[in-house]
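Work Package 4 report. The design task specified in the project plan requires that, given a folded chain encoded as structure tokens, an amino acid be chosen for each position. We show below one input record used in the internal validation round.
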């Protein structure tokens, strides 16, 4: 193959077949994909969860990950948030003519590694090559399919007054990592994306505690926006205690320097868990037993007061409205 992606690789002819067989099949090798049908036959039983997402992150390689691993992690996590075990992924690539083939190989290898670690199979896909300038290097679309393992499924409208609001770890790492790489910034302490597949931790959690009411990953718009979405869906209020929010010193100082609020920065390896208060300690023990949840903590409670609003309680006891993200704090974050 050429050392750069050519338009011919998207033609459907011999060049396309070489790209598929020598790159994608070699990386994602499994029995269903190797059949090279236009669709896949999936072995599923009972209700399923389906999610689709498109990834346009800039830069495509960043501290802690790349667009390939991010595409797997993001979709796997979205499926898992419904209390499901992700099983299969589909994958569509839109590639700009001239992308170095080594970059494409690196991205595909990263996706394959992420899929193996998450325990999912890439079973079908598509590749399109567009003329130079028609897209920015590479865009990836993934669809995830998983088997529901808990009923009723966790959902935003199930948040109830008295529930505990937990997060699995530090907020804002992904957003600041992307921004620092994009702008060529460096901080005293390095900041890396938290991009990770959360499905194994989620499965352990919901199998032990099927009473979980809500699971959400606070990606674009960050923690504050996601909590507002939950409050709006459930018609409840959410009280968050600022003093216990898990944010690293590096993220705090970086946001202070740049004039950003870490509560609105994207996360790609963290989740919010809302469940009855009496189960909070057990949930935290389960989360902290996994490396991806070692910094888990309770940050607040669901209330009857202030329906559909999120209130931030400051360390000195004051309270202020924590609204949704206004505008685009950082475009092309995922």
């Amino acid at each position: 193959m050429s050392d750069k992606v050519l338009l011919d690789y998207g033609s459907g002819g011999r060049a396309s077949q070489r790209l598929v067989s020598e790159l994608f099949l070699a990386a994602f090798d499994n029995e269903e994909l190797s059949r090279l049908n236009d669709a896949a036959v999936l072995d599923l039983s009972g209700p399923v969860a389906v999610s689709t997402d498109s990834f346009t992150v800039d830069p495509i390689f960043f501290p802690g990950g790349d667009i390939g691993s991010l595409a797997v992690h993001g979709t796997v996590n979205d499926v898992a948030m419904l209390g499901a075990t992700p099983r299969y992924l589909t994958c569509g690539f839109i590639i700009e003519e001239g992308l170095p083939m080594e970059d494409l190989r690196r991205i595909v290898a990263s996706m394959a590694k992420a899929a193996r670690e998450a325990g999912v199979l890439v079973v079908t896909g598509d590749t399109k090559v567009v003329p130079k300038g028609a897209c920015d290097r590479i865009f990836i679309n993934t669809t995830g399919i998983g088997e529901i393992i808990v009923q009723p499924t966790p959902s935003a409208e199930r948040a109830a007054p008295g529930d505990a609001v937990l997060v699995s770890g530090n907020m804002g790492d992904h957003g600041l990592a992307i921004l620092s790489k994009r702008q060529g910034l460096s901080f005293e302490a390095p900041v890396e994306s938290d991009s990770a597949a959360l499905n194994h931790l989620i499965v352990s959690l919901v199998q032990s505690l099927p009473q979980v009411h809500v699971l959400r990953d606070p990606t674009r718009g960050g923690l504050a926006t996601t909590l507002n979405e939950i409050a709006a869906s459930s018609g409840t209020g959410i009280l968050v205690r600022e003093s216990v929010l898990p944010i690293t010193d590096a993220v705090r100082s970086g946001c202070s320097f740049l004039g950003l609020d870490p509560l609105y920065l994207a996360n790609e390896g963290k989740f919010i868990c809302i469940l009855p208060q009496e189960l909070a300690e057990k949930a935290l023990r389960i989360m902290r037993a996994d490396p991806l949840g070692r910094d888990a903590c309770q940050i607040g409670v669901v209330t009857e007061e202030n329906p559909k609003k999120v209130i931030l309680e400051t360390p000195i006891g004051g309270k202020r409205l924590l609204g949704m993200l206004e505008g685009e704090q950082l475009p092309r974050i995922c």
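The radius of gyration is 21 Å. Validation will be extended to a larger panel in the next phase.
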